[in-house]
Design a protein that fits this description.
By secondary structure, the chain is mainly alpha-helical. The chain is built from five helices and no strands.
Length: about 140
């Protein structure tokens, strides 16, 4: 396994765990939802998005662009989480897990975009060379 796959699988496991807890409305998640002013239904929708993002991270092994898109979606969720914690007066300590996951997701996005850029650049170069110097 390459490091990108390990990172994506680890992040997927984390988001499946947290997302499932939100979907099942585990007591600790209900308390967190109430603390930040969300209904249990809203927290369940967030949990569904987290699980969907985790599936996208894993599916990215077969559809490379999907991993980057899923990671960006999860980054948007985490940005909302950090903003919510800070607006709620929870401080940086409460936002730290979201910030840590956001850093890891950012690393994954950069890696995936670079890989995608290499693939597209190689494809375009092949096409341009074929067009510029056709077989005679």
């Amino acid at each position: 396994m390459n490091p990108t796959t390990v990172l994506a699988a680890t992040l997927a496991a984390v988001f499946v765990a947290f997302g499932t807890a939100k979907l099942l409305a585990v007591a600790s998640m209900q308390t967190r939802a109430a603390h930040v002013g969300f209904s249990v239904g809203a927290f369940r929708r967030i949990g569904a998005l987290e699980v969907a993002g985790a599936v996208g991270l894993l599916a990215g092994a077969y559809v490379p662009l999907l991993r980057a898109v899923a990671a960006i979606g999860l980054l948007l969720l985490l940005t909302g989480a950090v903003i919510t914690h800070l607006r709620n007066g929870d401080g940086i300590k409460a936002a730290a897990p979201a910030l840590f996951l956001a850093i890891l997701l950012s690393i994954l996005v950069v890696i995936e975009i670079r890989v995608w850029d290499d693939v597209v650049s190689g494809f375009l170069q092949d096409r341009l060379l074929t067009w510029a110097a056709p077989d005679c």
